[in-house]
Amino acid sequence: MAEAIVVQGLKKIYKGHLGDSVAAVDDLNFQVDQGEIFGFIGPNGAGKTTTIKMLLGLLFPSSGKITVLGKPAGDIEAKKRISYLPESPYFYEHMTGIEVLDFYCKLFKMDSASRKRRIGELLEQVGLTKDGSRSLRQYSKGMLQRIGIAQSLINEPDLLIYDEPTSGLDPIAHKDIQDLILSLKKQGKTVFVSSHQLTDIESVCDKVAIINRGQLVKLGTMQELLQIGRTVITLSGPKDGFADEVKPLAERVSVEGEFMRVYTETGENVNKVLDASRGKASLVSVVPQKQTLEDLFVEIVREGRK
Ligand SMILES: Nc1ncnc2c1ncn2[C@@H]1O[C@H](COP(=O)(O)OP(=O)(O)OP(=O)(O)O)[C@@H](O)[C@H]1O
Ligand SMILES: [Mg+2]
Fold first, then answer.
1. How many separate domains does the chain show?
2. Which residues partner with 284 through β-bridges?
């Protein structure tokens, strides 16, 4: 499968007035395949927006290489096939939804009949058909975000780059935007979406990159990232010395009253602990702990702060 985005050794150093410098993006490497939804997540200040601006050619990297749709970042031909929804899209509030879309359609030099048809399609696609004639001043945050998405679809782009499309939205609006992103994938588009709304990412993304302090800390499919699970084995009435015996197989062993809990990586060690327990303790339960992306994220970010 062809790649939509390839990033190699990407770095961005911001230089301050006092001669200080911040490595906002520090040696990033990743690639996004065509047709996938790629989640780009990290805490505030991780370097998400900086990376996105470099992908779009709005900022120059300090070093490294970026290829977008087979062309260097910023290439005019590639740009025609890309669309960008910024972190906080800004629109003229006195305009109606239809007027705003019409304004952008004109930038694409569409004639009046095609503009009318396209605006109707776009409003329908983002669920704003009824609100097209209202001024944006009367729109809620979720509605503004939808108009932003409608605007991003005018030129029928192949690659969509959305910077935090769900930030500040309520759960229903979140879900709507997730569904919209999934429908774009069905149309064969590639979606690169940054967020710290981890639950959004978890449900829509094929692949996720987690960045922290400008560096990539994890990259993989949702399945790969989340299978690093643990299993908790609860036993009762352990014989003396049994806790010490299983310690090498476990990340942690705790004994509370007559119960003993063994926290171990899901996999072979679970069998080993169970084998070792025969005749030395009674089995109460074996519970796999499914890790959510949120757990993983918090763990990674905390690890980075140590
Ligand atoms: N124009 C700039 N000049 C100097 N430093 C900057 C500039 N823009 C961003 N930074 C710094 O670069 C780092 C990364 O910022 P960036 O905006 O890319 O993060 P982000 O992941 O998008 O964060 P958020 O989730 O808050 O949007 C931060 O330390 C930020 O302070
Ligand atoms: Mg940002």
1. 2
2. none
